[in-house]
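Project outcomes to date are best conveyed with an example. Our students and postdoctoral researchers have been running inverse folding experiments weekly, and each run begins with a structure described purely in tokens. The record below, which covers 492 residues, was selected by the lab manager from last quarter's runs and is presented without edits.
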């Protein structure tokens, strides 16, 4: 009897050790991809069968956001688990990366094999602050190369940053996409023209290519026998590169797709409405790895949501999210940014534009915070609006994308989901505006935002490490059609 008991105990202990194995983590990230442009999120035009299959078995987040509608700060906040205004120069595009704790380094020190393929953190110059390699991890040319260095039994984390669907899009992608242009739904903040529909179809084509990349990476992990113990995360870094998208605090710039799948551990087929962000990756991964979460991380672990069997709103306190914008590209004289903060709830979006006298889309005539920022490569929708901006039917779209904005913006999302009509000046919404303004300020003060505290930081004078952007040179077509100069100088 004692021997049987001993064998059972040994078997239990073996199972316990097996079950306590730290999970691998595979992040598959698209670039400049809004949340509603996947089949799993209800888009009936483009085809993303591989991502949709992961969503069917995984946890799908309906209110996922990036910390800032710009590549570098969104990724910096993700790595540090902190709000971007706490990261100094890290809140700007093409800046450096601050000497902050990142989950990648902490996990590497704890025994994880960590690597990236593609952008990782960036664009910017991390070495300026002493980083030996990209803060996202050491760079590899392929997953196979990365996997070849893993020691037996060693847990790993791999972050693949796709180039898709970042502009410039592949030429005539709309033809290759197999999409019916007539079925594309053009958002109400963009003009409905053939040029715009083709531009959206070009973008959709890139997303469909990303879907194939997802299938490829899942197949590789499966071939190596690692899929069962690998958490798969599919997400984007920020919204699409359309007017009112990238570099804007509207949903088109900040709301992202997020799907997390580990079928044998997290109940799949669930849609979650909690407000979450890329920032939450840091404490989540550290908790999974058994590493103490640094006190400076302002984000929260997603594990209570992932391990729940429920759907909808799991944690009642996750009923809002705060986002920020500092300098995106170098598109205003002397490198001035367009600072803003926003709070998003289920029913409202409130935005505070600190320098409302500046051009939100960058100085005319290039309006460089709307890509292509120097009009140096094809950007059909932006080009169409600029070319026809004086026509009565196009001017409203021009104003939405390029004209100056007031200090405060407020949108009633139930009546205006695409955030077109600013009701900040409507007396009917005065109480709501005051409540949201106070809630935003309280959060910014609590987390040490220099915009609302005595902390002093000048984002306008942070070094910008892409010198060529300071002297933009539009394409020949842009020069001819829009009457532009051959070169501009934003340094004086």
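After processing, the design step wrote out the following sequence:
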């Amino acid at each position: 009897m004692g021997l049987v008991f001993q064998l059972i105990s040994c078997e239990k202990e073996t199972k316990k050790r097996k079950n306590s194995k730290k999970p691998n983590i595979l992040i598959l990230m698209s670039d400049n991809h809004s949340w509603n442009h996947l089949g799993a999120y209800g888009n009936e035009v483009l085809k993303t069968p591989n991502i949709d299959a992961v969503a069917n078995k995984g946890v799908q987040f309906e209110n996922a956001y990036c910390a800032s509608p710009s590549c570098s700060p969104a990724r910096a906040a993700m790595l540090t688990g902190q709000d971007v205004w706490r990261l100094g120069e890290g809140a700007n595009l093409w800046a450096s990366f601050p000497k902050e704790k990142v989950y990648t380094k902490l996990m590497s020190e704890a025994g994880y094999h960590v690597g990236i393929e593609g952008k990782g953190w960036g664009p910017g110059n991390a070495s300026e602050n002493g980083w030996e390699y990209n803060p996202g991890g050491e760079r590899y040319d392929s997953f196979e190369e990365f996997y070849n260095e893993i020691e037996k039994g060693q847990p790993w984390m791999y972050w693949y940053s796709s180039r898709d669907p970042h502009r410039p899009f592949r030429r005539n992608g709309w033809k290759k996409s197999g999409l019916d242009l007539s079925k594309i739904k053009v958002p109400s903040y963009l003009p409905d023209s053939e040029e715009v529909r083709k531009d959206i179809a070009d973008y959709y084509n890139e997303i469909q290519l990303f879907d194939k990349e997802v299938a490829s990476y899942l197949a590789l992990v499966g071939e190596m026998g690692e899929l069962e113990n690998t958490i798969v995360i599919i997400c984007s870094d920020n919204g699409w590169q359309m007017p009112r998208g990238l570099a804007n605090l509207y949903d088109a710039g900040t709301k992202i797709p997020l799907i997390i799948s580990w079928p044998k551990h997290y109940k799949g087929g669930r849609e979650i409405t909690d407000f979450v962000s890329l920032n939450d990756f840091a404490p989540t991964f550290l908790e999974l790895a058994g590493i103490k979460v640094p006190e400076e991380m302002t984000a929260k672990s997603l594990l209570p949501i992932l391990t729940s069997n429920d759907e909808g709103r799991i944690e009642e306190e996750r009923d809002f999210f705060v986002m920020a914008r500092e300098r995106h590209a170098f598109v205003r004289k002397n490198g001035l940014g367009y600072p803003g903060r926003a709070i998003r709830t289920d029913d409202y979006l409130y935005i505070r534009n600190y320098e409302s006298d500046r051009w939100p889309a960058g100085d005319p005539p290039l309006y460089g915070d709307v890509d292509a920022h120097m009009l140096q490569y094809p950007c059909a929708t932006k080009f169409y609006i600029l070319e026809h901006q004086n026509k009565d039917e196009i001017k409203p779209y021009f104003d939405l994308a390029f004209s100056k904005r007031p200090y405060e913006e407020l949108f009633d999302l139930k009546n205006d989901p695409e955030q077109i009509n600013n009701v900040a000046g409507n007396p009917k919404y005065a109480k709501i505006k005051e409540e949201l303004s106070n809630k935003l300020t309280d959060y910014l003060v609590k987390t040490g935002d220099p915009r609302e505290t005595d902390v002093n930081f000048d984002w306008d004078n942070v070094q910008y490490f892409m010198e060529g952007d300071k002297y933009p040179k539009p394409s020949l077509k842009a020069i001819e059609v829009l009457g532009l100069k051959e070169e501009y100088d934003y340094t004086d």
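Residues 1-19 have pLDDT under 50 and may be disordered. The radius of gyration is 23 Å. The training component of this project remains on track.
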